[in-house]
């Protein structure tokens, strides 16, 4: 047991939360301990201000979650790929939400090139390429606008990357209901917004890809 009050506070919070949950729903932990049946997979940024269960109002058991810096979906990342495979094949989630957020430090770092070495620099390679590709055009509106737009474009990029994973492709081939959503969270107002049309089949994916290459 820790004597550090910063740590002890978390256990106190936890005990208070358990008491509240049981007061509202005495069977909650009995029920959720036996199984989870989430309808949603959330793929978002690790940013401490973007807390998926809280901002969607979902209790434990309803949201399967993967978070990393700048909500990157990379097919060489076995962590993220395993989460997607488990959620789609085993849990059979019906929705995958890719959620970025304005003011993302990961996207900012990729645009400003402050990081030149270490794992994070490599992690952000894909976003750096996206920036290199769109820089000239986006900078016409100034850096602040460019950062907001880059966060949005990154959601699009990761959405399309998700749609190309084996798990998602096979679900669509088997005609399972699986919709991919691209959302953005506003740190300023706490609101979620849908940025792009949902993708729910291979033909919709092909259409989305052609729209992205010919905006
Ligand atoms: Zn972020």
Automatic annotation (TrEMBL):
EC number: 4.2.1.1
UniProt record, GO biological process: carbon utilization
Keyword match Metal-binding: yes
Coiled-coil spans in chain: none
Molecular function terms from GO: carbonate dehydratase activity; zinc ion binding
Listed cofactors: Zn(2+)
Catalytic activity line of the entry: hydrogencarbonate + H(+) = CO2 + H2O
Keywords: Lyase, Metal-binding, Zinc
InterPro entries from the UniProt entry: Carbonic_anhydrase, Carbonic_anhydrase_CS, Carbonic_anhydrase_sf
Name this polypeptide is given: carbonic anhydrase
